[in-house]
Specification:
By secondary structure, the protein is mostly helical. It contains 19 helices and ten strands. The protein starts with a helix and ends in a 9-residue tail after the last strand.
Length: 531
């Protein structure tokens, strides 16, 4: 190779030397030739010069051959990842079978993932359970970033979950919440499982908003009970480590039976959806009866399906996948957050008293809470924000997956990695938050920068960037309306001799490890207000 290069460069230079000694008339030509040869030499130099290697993967535990760190994962992944970050840094690598896991635990690196390189990280590493649950990944959570996802996002944010649409179905939400308040009133002086009741409440609220004008009476009650069982089993499977995800070559064997179980659960939902859609289509003009009875999300979705964009149409599969998202994704998240909030307030009685005083001032004791009141309750908003800080509904968000290798925090994050953003750890970072483990709603009062728009990477409970939660507006309304009604209507205390336990249990959705069991005492002046 060296001899060829020597010949290549020596012959033109020899010719140039001989030419310049015989004539000066061709000087411009010779200058051009010299320039060309110099550029050619430079290009060869750059071609032969070794390229700079990419930065290494982030540091992390070594793990075992083949299995990597899988055998050492603590079931409480959010705290486990936080502990690992204290040893290996705010960006670390976990080898999970054939997969590379990247864990992010700092605001600055979260910003690089979710804002600076948002498009690169806008996709998901879809687990087998997620694909089975969402009609092959046809929902807004798992669909790859692109025209189809943008269409689904538009349907959710601009149409289905817009403030105008949410306003139009307020009567449905109100009716379900009043039924729950009535139930608690019937149990005055007795123990009630707050989390269980809030799950049923939110489930009924969501299904009522989805198809409240279609399914009525006893049939809806039976459906709510069935949904509760199926959702519990689905969320458990979605949070269960599955060998098929970490060793794709083994996926066809479904060694743990996760795919088979999820397929069976999804089929149960699909049959329910098919039945409800058939009922709706049989109703004259996609609806009948009063405006309140017929105004529901299914009505909006079927209309959008008929009137949608021909290039990226909303199909029946998309429609059912969105219903699945609402039922599975909207129940546990909201009900668990309300349960955490009430538990934290009971643990700090002065916080509960202050919230009750605020609601009483705005609503009065001879009236009931309406959604129109919630924007006049800044302290209760601070309670919500502080609850989401300490107990974010999705502690690791939904994992992201880069479409190409990318340099983040000085390290290479390889294409196809599963990227966990540990928002739970960021929200408890002592370099950001004063007394980070203390429940203190006051920290959110009078400081507008602490919102959940996803622009501040010290606090982003709903995520950030293109894949930020599409249901934030609905979650805010349901949480505030529910919690305001609970603290306005009742005093809450623990059963005699019991202590409050605030310990968390990790899952795709964060839960209270020990359910909140409490005793309600009525606060309102007129028993008729509980009807």
């Amino acid at each position: 190779m060296l001899q060829k290069l020597t010949t290549l460069f020596s012959e033109p230079y020899s010719w140039w030397f001989q030419t310049t000694t015989t004539t000066t008339s061709s000087l411009p030509f010779l200058l051009l030739t010299t320039t060309f040869l110099l550029l050619l030499s430079l290009s060869w130099f750059l071609y032969l010069k070794p390229t700079t290697p990419d930065p290494p993967l982030p540091p992390g535990p070594l793990g075992l051959p083949i299995l990597g760190s899988l055998p050492f994962l603590d079931p409480e992944l959010h705290t486990h990842f936080s502990t690992l970050s204290q040893t290996h840094g705010p960006i670390l690598t976990l080898r999970l079978g054939t997969k590379i896991g990247i864990v992010i635990s700092s605001p600055s690196i979260s910003r690089q993932i979710l804002k600076d390189h948002d498009v690169t990280f806008a996709n998901r590493d879809v687990p087998v359970a997620g694909r089975e649950a969402a009609y092959g990944g046809s929902d807004i959570v798992w669909t790859p970033y692109g025209p189809e996802w943008r269409m689904l996002r538009k349907v959710c944010v601009r149409e289905m979950l817009s403030n105008a649409t949410l306003d139009s179905v307020y009567g449905l939400r109100r009716r379900e919440l009043r039924r729950t308040i009535q139930y608690f009133y019937s149990r005055v002086g007795s123990r009630v499982n707050v989390g269980e009741q809030m799950f049923l409440t939110v489930m009924n609220v969501i299904t009522n908003m989805l198809w409240g004008g279609t399914v009525k009476g006893e049939e809806r009650g039976k459906m709510g009970a069935e949904f509760r069982q199926v959702v519990a089993e689905m969320t458990e499977l979605l949070g269960k480590p599955n060998l098929s995800d970490f060793f794709p070559g083994l996926a066809r064997f479904d060694l743990q039976g996760v795919q088979k179980q999820m397929k069976g659960l999804a089929k149960r939902f699909d049959l329910i959806f098919e039945n409800i859609i058939d009922q709706r289509l049989k109703m004259d003009g996609h609806g009948s009866g009063t405006a309140e009875e017929s105004a529901d999300f299914l009505q909006f979705l079927l209309k959008l399906k008929d009137d949608g964009d021909a290039k990226t149409p909303l199909t029946i599969t998309h429609l059912k996948a969105l219903l699945m998202d609402m039922v599975v994704g909207g129940t546990d998240t909201t009900s668990n957050t309300v349960e955490f909030a009430l538990a934290e307030m009971m643990n700090k009685s002065q916080v509960l008293r202050k919230a009750q005083q605020e609601v009483e001032t705005v609503v009065g004791k001879d009236n009931i809470v309406e959604e129109s009141h919630i924007h006049k309750l800044p302290y209760l908003y601070a309670v919500m924000k502080e609850t989401l800080r300490l107990h974010p509904a999705l502690p690791l968000l939904v994992p992201h997956c880069p479409t190409e290798s990318c340099i983040v925090g000085g390290y290479t994050v390889p294409k196809g990695a599963r990227v966990f953003v540990n928002v739970w750890a960021v929200h408890r970072d002592p370099s950001v938050w004063t007394n980070p483990l203390e429940f203190d709603p006051e920290r959110f009062l009078g400081d507008s920068k602490w919102d959940y728009s996803g622009n501040d990477f010290n606090y982003f409970p709903f995520g950030s960037g293109r894949r930020i939660c599409a249901g934030t507006a609905m979650a805010e309304r349901m949480f505030m309306f529910s919690l305001a009604s609970l603290v306005h209507s009742f005093d809450w205390k623990l059963p005699e001799g019991e202590k409050l336990d605030l310990e968390e249990k990790f899952g795709i959705v964060l839960k209270k490890k020990v359910p909140l069991v409490a005793i309600p005492t009525p606060r309102l002046s007129d028993p008729a207000l509980y009807e």
